[in-house]
Specification:
The protein is α+β, with helices and mostly antiparallel strands and about 240 residues long. Helix content is about 20%, strand content about 30%.
């Protein structure tokens, strides 16, 4: 039995997220259908992350076990011939039998794209958050320093989540402005449900001077979702990379 890991790129716009659901189109379901046609048997896929509806991925990872003899270097092209145009297998790897894409990951990198202009972009509307308010990038950068390191991020978790352990480690947050686009990049050992999008929404409040960078410390200490900013919309979020030892 072979254990194969896939590196997957997808445009999440027309998906109801990664994970298979009773109704709706999902990335996992499309990949499982393609593998079944090649391997000639049912497979179970273990994805590193469960992205929400309209969230994109540049390098999602997932593994599955198969008896198929298809050469690993031919697998991406074979699968891409069966997948819809908004999903692509970038690479495939033979992995040890005990490897699990989710449980062996030690971190993830996400990016969030804000289109900061008075006039919206038709071409970027599916892959960015249109935000026409003037932002102070330096204030936003100052605010990120309070989020770096290990903290209880309960305030930055969706109120609907029931996860018990809300401590996470953020290794870095970078904010880069290119013309009318602002890119926020977050690297950490793990992220709570909607954590990145809530952090983005809160940083935007700092950027528009509705609150101060120092207020981030209070939000963390409160452990209360009501003190953080709004949840930024999903279309600006990208899973950039899954980190392994």
């Amino acid at each position: 039995m072979r254990n194969i890991m896939l590196e997957i790129e997808y445009d999440g716009t027309d998906f109801n997220g990664w994970q298979i659901q009773p109704k709706g189109r999902t990335v996992e379901k499309e990949i499982m259908k393609a593998i079944k046609k090649i391997a000639k048997h049912e497979v179970k896929i273990f994805g590193a992350g469960r992205t929400d509806a309209k969230v994109h991925a540049k390098a999602q990872t997932a593994n599955f076990k198969t008896e198929s003899k298809i050469p690993i270097d031919r697998l991406p092209k074979a699968m891409n011939g069966l997948l819809p145009k908004d999903v692509s297998i970038v690479r495939a790897f033979e992995m040890p039998k005990n490897f699990n894409a989710r449980y062996h990951a030690i971190g993830k990198t996400y990016s969030y794209h804000i289109y900061n202009s008075r006039i919206r972009s038709a071409l970027l509307s599916r892959h960015s958050y249109y935000y026409p308010v003037t932002l102070d990038i330096e204030l936003m950068r100052a605010a990120t320093q309070f989020l770096i390191g290990g903290h209880d991020f309960k305030s930055f978790m969706s109120a609907n989540s029931n996860i018990k352990n809300t401590v996470r480690i953020i290794n870095s947050i970078n904010i880069c402005k290119r013309d009318k686009s602002i890119y926020l990049t977050f690297e950490g050992n793990g992220f709570l449900y909607n954590m990145v999008r809530i952090m983005v929404g809160t940083l935007l409040e700092v950027g528009r001077k509705k609150t101060t960078p120092e207020y981030m410390k209070y939000i963390l200490e409160s452990k209360n979702r009501v003190y953080a900013g709004c949840t930024a919309p999903p279309q600006g979020l990208f899973l950039e990379k899954v980190i392994y030892p």
